[in-house]
Amino acid sequence: MTTILSTQNIVDNKLEKLAKRVQKLKERTIRPKMKVVLVGENSASLVYVGIKEKTCKKLQCDFELLRLPHDVTRKEFLNEVDSMNNDPSIHGCFVQLPVPEHLQDIDVTSLINPEKDVDGFGGATIVDIYKGKTPFFLPCTPMGVLELLNHNQIEALGKRVVIIGKSLIVGRPLSLLLQNMGATVTVCHSKTQNLESHTLQADIIISAVGSPKFLTKDYFNKDLNQVVIDVGINRDHNGKLCGDVDFENVKNIVSAITPVPGGVGPLTVISLMENLVKSAERATKG
Ligand code: NAP
Fold first, then answer.
1. Any catalytic annotation for residue 52?
2. What's the domain range around 97?
3. What atom in ligand 1 is closest to the CA of residue 166?
4. How many domains does the chain fold into?
């Protein structure tokens, strides 16, 4: 029988533990604070920022959103990031991506102070992962996926893992982290030929493509032994949230599968909060 890898329990459990850590910080008069810079009116970004704000509030952490106009000058944008980086009251900060076209040649993630890089997208984190070390802040979505595997006792060591998607925020860091854990990882992308020849051989398939119900049942071997982690968050033709995997038609032919919504997404947000609290705790140690 297929296991549906819902994450509500993990999230509730983590929220409870984080609330205790925040309370301890408050006893030392420290309130974790996150600041986000959002440029323009991207509707998906507004939703993501809203979820982060709500979770911060739930944990009684401070949250500040700085909204800059779509046509903000480079100078003003860079000044704002600089002042956020240097504000000692802020423990975690980032620029919500994507930024408008005129700022896209800036390596935005590298601008963030590594001490506050709770998204885990910066160079210091990537270099650590590349070298096989554990960085102080793990990138949030890969961290969520690893937590999901760990919680469900799904071993990566020695497994054949196929990741579809090689973005800097999901596929690439996740591929290195899983290699570091002893998995044999194949990374597929838009130029991969005969994608199903890879997925059919895999023990674990992780999809981060961004295409609704793209992975149909033909991509799975029907031996009821594959684990499917769906990172994609998309809307189907009715405007309903869905993943990259055709969940309804795949769920009965694999051993375990994440739902969308209710799978990797909430773990990404909770990983961000874990990084924020960790950063605030480090700040108490000077
Ligand atoms: P992205 O930067 O657009 O990357 C998409 C990747 O998919 C690229 O590597 C692309 O290949 C590959 N791809 C596109 N079409 C393909 C095809 N037909 N066959 C195989 N590979 C294909 O996307 P992203 O930022 O990583 O996000 C991916 C999805 O995950 C989105 O739905 C996003 O909303 C979701 N997401 C969810 C979370 C979460 O918390 N659950 C977090 C982040 C992102 P090329 O590199 O060759 O172009």
1. yes
2. 28-113
3. 9
4. 2
144, 92: one domain: no
Provide the angle, in degrees to the nearest 10, between the axes of the packed helices 140-151 and 264-284: 110
The H or E element containing residue 45 is helix 43-58
Q: Within a domain: residue 13?
A: no
229: in domain: yes
Cβ(192) to ligand 1 under 6 A? yes
CB of 165 within 6 A of ligand 1: the answer is: yes
Is the pLDDT assigned to residue 234 strictly greater than 70? yes
Judge whether 218 counts as a catalytic residue. Answer: no
**Domain identity same for 82 and 179:** no
Residue 218 covered by a domain: yes
H or E element, residue 249: helix 247-250
Do the domain assignments include residue 283? no
- The structure's pTM equals 0.96
User: Which of 140, 83, 141, 143 shows the shortest CA–CA distance to 117?
Assistant: 140
**Catalytic annotation, pick one of 33, 116, 119, 213:** 119
**Could you tell me which residues come within 8 angstroms of residue 53 by beta carbon, excluding any fewer than 6 positions away?**
63, 65
Kindly report the backbone phi and psi dihedral angles of residue 222, in degrees, each rounded to the nearest multiple of 5, phi listed first: 65, 15
Render pLDDT for 76-117 as a digit per residue (tens, 0 to 9): 999 999 999 999 999 999 999 999 999 999 999 999 999 999
Burial (CB < 10 A; 0-12, 13-18, 19+), residue 193, is: exposed
Nearest CA to ligand 1 atom 31: 210
User: What is the atom index within ligand 1 of the atom nearest the CA of 244?
Assistant: 32
Domain CATH number, residue 70: 3.40.50.10860
Alpha-carbon gap, residue 143 to 69, rounded angstroms? 32
The verdict on whether 119 is a catalytic residue reads yes
Instruction: Tell me what pLDDT residue 286 has.
Output: 66
